Amino acid sequence: MDESQAGGKPLHAAGRLTPARNPDDLLPWRRASQLDWCFLYWVPVRTFPIPAAQRQWLMAFFDRFGPIVAKELGLRPEVFFQLKLIYPSLLKPFLNNANEFQPLIGLSRRPNAPLPDAPKEEDIQAIVEGRKKYDFGEYVADYVYWFVDKAEKKQREVFFGEGGMTIIFLKPDPKTKPPVLPLSPALRAKNPLLQHFDIDRLAARAFALGDGFQKLSKDLFGAGLEQEPQSSGIRFILPLLSTQDFFTQPEEEKLKWFQLFDVYFSESPVDKGVLLASKPDLEEPIIELLRKMREEGLRYPEG
Fold first, then answer.
1. Counting Cβ atoms within 10 Å, is residue 117 exposed (0-12), middle (13-18) or buried (19+)?
2. Per residue in 240-268, pLDDT tens?
3. Single pTM value for the model
4. What are phi and psi of 2, to 5 degrees?
5. Which of 85, 126, 168, 280 has its C-alpha lying 20 to 30 A from 75's C-alpha?
6. What is the rounded radius of gyration, in angstroms, for the C-alpha atoms of the chain?
7. How confident is the model at residue 228 (pLDDT cuts 50, 70, 90)?
8. Backbone angles phi, psi at 283, to 5 degrees
């Protein structure tokens, strides 16, 4: 996203366009002022993996941003990470945390992109003979892990900064709320099994598997994949978006995104930065958040 896109006109709840405050108030985020159907922000990073100082600031921002979204809009985060970026450097932390995070595989998809073809016989022969280097990403779709367990902050601490994390904010799904278990504190204290296992957390994971976003995402973003052999086994389809998509995709495609989520946060190596997109107007809360961070001495190192 070009820095000239910063500032612009926030769309307020009543739908009236009013002049923005000083665009510097949003820094280091830049706003795409040309868009009037959603709010799109971008912050640059020097490289991926994100350098430690920039990562530290972004983590601090998100520690504050998530609770604002929950308070202002009543939304909950769901965390995803690209399979292709697990191997090889993140394989060990992924395996070490898999039992806790409960990763479930699905598909992420750039708008209307086909699944990659299987390697042709001549490609396989060229790889075997050393005439062509095997590229894992060339023949494997953009599969993505959804972390079923609700440990968003810890998941960011382990995986954020490598270029593969997306967090979407959704409205609550009543089907994911487990019933209150009839277990008194006395029973929990006496029963060795209940002391060893977090039965409430296990129940929450089980009910999370019925989250309605999965079917909705396939209905919205599965067009053209109906005849693919693996289609029936795909649990969900996560939009994989870049800044260009917000400007170039047709209206009917863009409207689908915000039928699935209200807020979209994603690392975007193709944009050399991090994206934040929102259908609701969160500009004033973001500006206030950034003001407080500056008062605390937290400044983004762009150089």
1. exposed
2. 999 999 999 999 999 999 999 999 999 99
3. 0.86
4. -70, 140
5. 85
6. 21
7. confident
8. -65, -45
Q: Are strands 76-82 and 237-239 parallel, antiparallel or unpaired?
A: unpaired
Determine which of 72-86, 149-163, 192-206, 286-300 has the lowest per-residue pLDDT on average: 192-206
Would you state the pLDDT for residue 284?
A: 96
| Strand ranges in 54-121 using DSSP code E only, listed in sequence order | 76-82, 103-109
- What is the DSSP pairing of strand 39-44 with strand 30-31? antiparallel
Determine the residue type at 132: K
Domain boundaries, the chain: 3-173+211-295
With both helix axes pointing from N to C terminus, report the angle between 91-101 and 152-159 in degrees, rounded to the nearest 10.
170
Angle, CA 175 vertex, CA 197 and CA 224 arms, to 5°: 110
| Cα 2 from Cα 183, distance rounded (Å) | 56
> Do 112 and 224 form a contact (C-beta atoms < 8 A)?
yes
Q: How far is CA 71 from CA 65, 184, 202, 219, 282, in A?
A: 10, 30, 26, 29, 11
User: What Å distances lie between residue 251 and 49, 227, 245, 258, CA to CA?
Assistant: 33, 26, 11, 12
Task: State how far the Cα of 194 lies from the Cα of 149, in Å rounded to an integer.
Answer: 19
Instruction: Return d(Cα 144, Cα 288) in angstroms, integer.
Output: 33
Beta carbons within 8 Å of 274's beta carbon, 6+ residues apart: 42, 43, 45, 58, 265, 266, 267, 268
